[in-house]
Amino acid sequence: MRNLSLYVHMPFCKRKCPYCDFYSLTDFEDHRRYVDALLLQMEDYAMAASPFTVDTIYIGGGTPTVVSERLLYDLMDGIYRNFKVFLDAETTIEANPATVDLSSLKKYKKMGVNRISFGVQSLSDKELVTLGRLHTAQEAIKSYEMARKAGFDNVSVDLMYGVPGQTVKSFTDTLRRITELDPEHVSVYGLKIEPGTHFDEIKDTLEFPDEDTEFKMYESAIAMLRSRGYAQYEISNFAKPGKECRHNNVYWTLGEYLGIGPGAHSYFNGSRFSFKRDINAFIEAQEQPEADIDIIDENYRISPNERVGEYIMLSLRLTKGIDLREFTKQFGLDFEKMYGELLDAYVDGGFMTRLENGYAFTPKGMYVSNYILSDMLDFDSEIDRNIANGSDR
Ligand SMILES: C[S@@+](CC[C@H](N)C(=O)[O-])C[C@H]1O[C@@H](n2cnc3c(N)ncnc32)[C@H](O)[C@@H]1O
Ligand code: SF4
After folding, report:
1. Which class would CATH give 2-251?
2. Is 175 in the pocket of ligand 2 (CB under 6 A)?
3. What does the pLDDT look like over 199-242, one tens digit per residue?
4. For ligand 2, is residue 13 a contact (CB within 6 Å)?
């Protein structure tokens, strides 16, 4: 019996944040029709997925919590009808703090969701306005507390650094207040200017913290979270012991996952594939299978060489790094022979540490890991991004 992770994309948001390029729409109202299409796609995969048992479910977006509880219930029901699911599966929903209340949170819990990930981003109201968020700091805290009241004992919070106008002080203040709330998991993302977003258009008018300040923010996050009981286990992810996100760990350890919905990515039965970011084509393809509408964006089998590259890239994202014996066992290759001088240079430069039997990035290396990895691997950065995150990110 093989384990499978399931990702379901909910491409809706109340308002588009100016930095975000996740596939999400603000003007698509027929959520029922969309969820029905998701259910049809799941039915399509049920047979191929029958040798698997689902170990983690991630309902991501967009903002899944803008969809009614009734429809989310139908979605969960569809998952359980079409797939075998472990009793203790980790089931996460992504939530914008502005789109939940106690009653909806209780219903998520009742339908089997046992982990909630809040996009808090910052606890500075000024920064939240800059980020175009729909909630204040106080409202984000209130939603977090409501989740606790609703019975969630596994809560994650997303934060961002490198935000225009942000200082090391305002960022550490956010971190301090967040850790006082005591979530089980914290993700800390460096703001990335994504092509085509509003921030990309106006970037010359925005006052970003300089590189040194941004690195100080990242370093402070690592130190501060560590001192408060959160171990860093990946470039952007920190958790209390045993609370690492099981779903994301599947992406980073080359486990298999099936992504349902437009823009979702999969690594399933040896193939990587993704669906186009087009909700109408997606729905029509499910409703009219005879019309043969092509919704596949990428679809390729992984060559042995690509697998080696993916393994290196994903292992190095993790703080435990790459294990030399494991690498040789999996690929019959010698990592040190492959990268000898390059590794010495990274270690000498303070970007990597030589472990007893492997290599891992230092915080400085993690911070510039994109550059180092593209130096090491001859990889398409778009593919990198997608396999690093599994979904449409
Ligand atoms: C799908 S959203 C989270 C749920 C919900 N939509 C929300 O925003 O509250 C995923 C996370 O990605 C991060 N993110 C999105 N765009 C980003 C960017 N351009 N740079 C860095 N982080 C980004 C944010 O921290 C966000 O919370
Ligand atoms: S950050 Fe979240 S709420 Fe904002 S546009 Fe992206 S998915 Fe939607």
Report:
1. alpha beta
2. no
3. 999 999 999 999 999 999 999 999 999 999 999 999 999 999 99
4. yes
